[in-house]
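Changelog note: in this version the structure field was regenerated for every chain. One regenerated record is shown below for reference.
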Amino acid sequence: MKATVTVCYTGAIRTYTGKRSESFDLQEAGNLRALMALLVARYGKGFESRVFVEGGGLNNLARVLVGEVEVPELPVGMDTALEPGSVVTIITITALAGGENLDPGVHEGPGQRHGIRVDQS
């Protein structure tokens, strides 16, 4: 029987993987860094940009866990060895925009917020 690691995908990252989870042979992915390189090669630049920032650090909208421990809390981080039966979870959060006045006809002046008069008493 092969020694495998399971990768679970949660959130927007499923857009790139098209699946909730999959298994990999540990010979292909002996540590977390090798596994992530394998995933980037398989799913491309879109996947990579959702999980990593330029320079290789984790995107602040992504969480990668080995078991129940996030990468920053792992003693050797991305170099963590994966054991047979390990579960790696990749969670991506969609950024929400806000705070911008999208209506060019509404101008904020003193005592107004979002084009609405605010009682300043």
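Spot check on this record: Residues 32-51 form the longest helix (20 residues). DSSP finds two helices and seven strands in the chain.
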